């Protein structure tokens, strides 16, 4: 495994972040495909044994059970100071409503720490932009969470670049804790973040930790093939519901991805991740797996460096997509 510094922080993170939405009791929350605790623990331990130290969950995943499972596993398999633990706040969980008011943030961080079994998280992220709460209220509350020691750093996810720029400016103006990461929707068939968000992050020294780097699995298998999860994935359908022209272009990208992978004797997933890791400012793509062999495959990406001509081959067919992933 390779490691780098997470933006302007003092956190050393693995080049791959294990996304923990896969882990959670199937009868809790909205995802019946999640792994129960015993199966989740096997993958978490396998990740730690192979050098992954960066774990990303959220208070709302599987109605809080993702945090519970991850917290117990990390306590059993690693020392707290050895891992970088990230969670999120915004979506409803239990009787906590959706939003980023001061009250919601303060209660959410306490609930998350209890479920995770820790005194602090390394990174607390706002999951989405809250249009019903003044951003100043949200930012001041996040600052107080950092001052209290309950979160070392704060980050954001999936918003318009103008909103992110506004938040960063307010944090600077008031001397509040600054967003150090942006978790955004970015992969070979969705590159709209390259227009404004990524240049802003590079300019501001904000580390980028992309979610859905494999396009909900679409980039890991022959184009058009489906799985039981993809058929029931309502969120994924909204992310990649495009025009016929865009779908055709995406299919060309997927074909070229398969060709590069074959030439490299690598998997499609490895090449898709290698493309992301070739981009400046990308700290650690967030990967999700449900089997140990899937994780083993993805770990191989750290040994792959794409040539400029391979990157051009993958990028050339891209056509603009409608903005997706902000809800």
Keywords, separated by commas or semicolons:
327 residues; alpha/beta; TIM Barrel; two-stranded antiparallel ribbon; 12 helices; 10 strands
Query: What is the beta-strand fraction?
Result: 5-15%
**Radius of gyration from the CA trace?**
19 Å
Low-pLDDT residue intervals, each spanning 5 or more residues: none
What structural category do the secondary elements indicate?
Answer: alpha/beta
What is the CATH topology? TIM Barrel
Mean pLDDT: 93
Task: Write out the CATH superfamily name.
Answer: NADP-dependent oxidoreductase domain
Q: Per the principal axes of the C-alpha atoms, what is the gross shape?
A: globular
- The tally of strands reads 10
Overall domain count: 1
Helix content: 40-55%
Q: How are strands sequenced across the largest beta sheet?
A: 9-8-7-6-5-4-3-10
Instruction: Tell me what the CATH architecture is.
Output: Alpha-Beta Barrel
Oligomer: single chain
CATH class: Alpha Beta
Listing every helix as H and every strand as E from the N terminus to the C terminus, the arrangement reads EEEHEHEHEHEHEHEHHHHEHH
* Main pleated sheet: 8 strands, parallel
Distance between the termini: 33 Å
SS element count, helices: 12
